[in-house]
Design brief:
CATH architecture of the largest domain: 2-Layer Sandwich
Number of domains: 2
Distance between the termini: 58 Å
Helix content: 25-40%
Structural class: alpha+beta
Number of strands: 15
CATH superfamily of the largest domain: Fructose-1,6-Bisphosphatase, subunit A, domain 1
Radius of gyration: 20 Å
Bound molecules: 2,5-anhydro-1,6-di-O-phosphono-D-glucitol, manganese (II) ion
Order of helices and strands: HHHEEEEEEEEEHEHEEHEEEH
Number of helices: 7
Largest sheet: 8 strands, mixed
CATH class of the largest domain: Alpha Beta
Length: 328
């Protein structure tokens, strides 16, 4: 029995690099910072319940380290692993009010990485899937880092997420399709498990926090009623995990639509444009799906601030087209 050909994410990124024209080695070295950090986060998440047990001695774990909340740990892991890559000019994290700017001279420091280190943190304590989301921009030559921090999603050079669930799956795009890798804990490597992922044209699920239904704009209520009453030619089931990465990953695999419409509490939507909506919007489009903000394509929004929020409708073409028509 010939041994199975495994493609690790490192070899896959190198291949992609040749195609995407990113500087050889620099790009894959930088992405390896993300895969390393996510392996550290995955390991820590697996221990989460145990930390409580070990940590019972009063907020220090067996190594005597101060007990860290997982989102602090995840943020530290991403900042540490990426900060060491000298191709990184700046990091923007959901957990940091201000960008972390590395004053590295010359043109080597030319990437800006934006990330949500731990998405779905409210689900950690109940042992439900959480994730990490990232998006990478290039600093145009001759442009200062400060002036390169707010770019539209169309300028991303790479985007991806990791969903920490029954298995740890890493999904990314550099503009040549969407590819998924599953972490093999036995060898500590992400191995190719979903090549060229394509989102179904239409799916069987819609995903929305129904508790906000009464404060949705009328058009969204009409849309949800259509989904529930066969308006799109089929029945739907509702799935809402409450971790964006997990709800998105299911939508990518099974099709359907995820939406976080404007609400009275969050009139501009709750999800963050730079490190939640943009990376997932690009992945959706690369897989044949669509992503809107309620008034146009998410990827075309010109951000005004690094933590700005947006409403998000992302999923299969049929479902998103229908809502777009209703919103027009
Ligand atoms: P984060 O944990 O990074 O703050 O993100 C939580 C987000 C997203 O993961 C999820 O889709 C959304 O919050 C759920 O919001 P509601 O609880 O309001 O539905
Ligand atoms: Mn999040
Ligand atoms: Mn988060």
């Amino acid at each position: 029995m010939p041994s199975p050909i495994i493609t690790t994410i490192q070899s896959h990124i190198l291949e992609q690099q040749q195609q995407s024209g990113e500087a050889s080695g620099t790009f894959s070295w930088m992405l390896s910072g993300i895969t390393l950090a996510t392996k550290m986060i995955a390991a820590e998440i697996r221990k989460a319940g145990l930390n409580d047990v070990y940590g019972a001695a009063g907020a220090t774990n067996v190594q005597g380290e101060a007990q860290q909340k997982l989102d602090v740990f995840a943020n530290e892991a991403m900042l540490h692993c990426l900060g060491m890559r000298d191709s990184v000019a700046a990091l923007i994290s959901e957990e940091n009010d201000e960008p972390v700017i590395f004053n590295r001279s010359g043109d080597k420091a030319k990437y800006i990485i934006v990330f949500d280190p731990l998405d779905g943190s409210s689900n950690i304590d109940v042992n439900v899937n959480v994730g990490t989301i990232f998006s990478i921009f290039r600093r145009p030559d001759g442009v200062s880092v400060e002036d390169a921090l707010l770019q539209p999603g169309t300028k991303q050079v790479a985007a991806g997420y990791v969903v920490y669930g029954p298995s740890t799956v890493f999904v990314y795009t550099t503009g040549n399709g969407v590819h998924g890798f599953t972490l093999d804990p036995a060898i500590g490597a992400y191995v190719l498990s979903f090549a060229n992922m394509k989102m179904p044209e239409q799916g069987a699920y819609y995903s929305v926090n129904e508790a906000n239904y009464d404060t949705f704009p009328e058009t969204y209520k009409q849309y949800l009623t259509e989904l529930r009453t066969g308006g799109l030619g089929q029945t739907y089931s509702s799935r809402y995990i409450g971790s964006l990465v997990a709800d998105f990953h299911r939508t990518l695999l099974k099709g359907g639509v995820f939406l976080y419409p404007p609400t009275v509490k969050q009139p501009k939507g709750k999800l963050r444009l730079l490190y939640e909506a943009n990376p997932l919007a690009w992945i959706a489009e690369q897989a044949g799906g669509r992503a809107l903000s309620g008034n146009g394509r998410v990827l075309e929004i010109n951000p005004e601030s690094i933590h700005e929020r947006t409403s998000l409708i992302v999923g299969s073409r049929v479902e998103v087209d229908r809502l777009e028509k209703l919103l027009q």
